Automatic annotation (TrEMBL):
One of its GO terms (molecular function) is endopeptidase inhibitor activity. GO terms for biological process: vacuole fusion, non-autophagic. PANTHER family: PROTEASE B INHIBITOR 2. Residues 1-19 form the signal peptide. InterPro entries: PBI_I9 (IPR052471), S8pro/Inhibitor_I9_sf (IPR037045). The keyword Oxidoreductase does not apply. Keywords: Signal. Belongs to the protease inhibitor I9 family. It comes from the Eukaryota. This is Inhibitor I9 domain-containing protein. The lineage of its organism: Eukaryota, Fungi, Fungi incertae sedis, Mucoromycota, Mortierellomycotina.
Length: 124
């Protein structure tokens, strides 16, 4: 049921989304925050037997380089990037080791990280 609710919200957001103006000062603050995002320090590869597939969705305020930086961090720790999403949501699917999921969850530009799974749509 949660997947259906998320899919409904994503579809509604995609239909209703419009470009909103950003004040110059806010744009500067957002860029500073993007540059200061959390970076993983200890770049040792992990045993991927503990990894799972996740959907990583970013907030609208996240710059493209923030998303790219997160992808690079996942790859540096031995993860794998699956699909990149740009229409209904901004983010990607990835196979990520557990400790990296925990570290990514502290990134203020990530809206949510959810374990990937099968989604079915039913007409009522």
């Amino acid at each position: 049921m949660r997947f259906f609710a998320i899919a409904t919200v994503i579809a509604a957001a995609a239909v209703a989304s419009a470009a909103l103006p950003v004040e110059p000062m806010n744009a500067f603050v957002l860029q500073q925050q993007n540059n200061e995002q959390h970076v993983l320090q200890d770049k040792k590869p992990f045993d991927m037997t503990g990894g799972k597939s996740y959907i990583v969705a970013f907030k609208d305020s996240a710059a493209a380089d923030v998303i790219l930086k997160a992808e690079k961090e996942i790859l540096a720790f031995g993860g794998k990037i699956g699909h990149r999403y740009t229409a209904a949501l901004r983010g990607f699917s990835a196979w990520i080791p557990g400790p990296i999921v925990t570290a990514l969850s502290s990134n203020p530009f990530i809206d949510y990280i959810e374990e990937d799974g099968e989604v079915n749509a039913y007409l009522v």
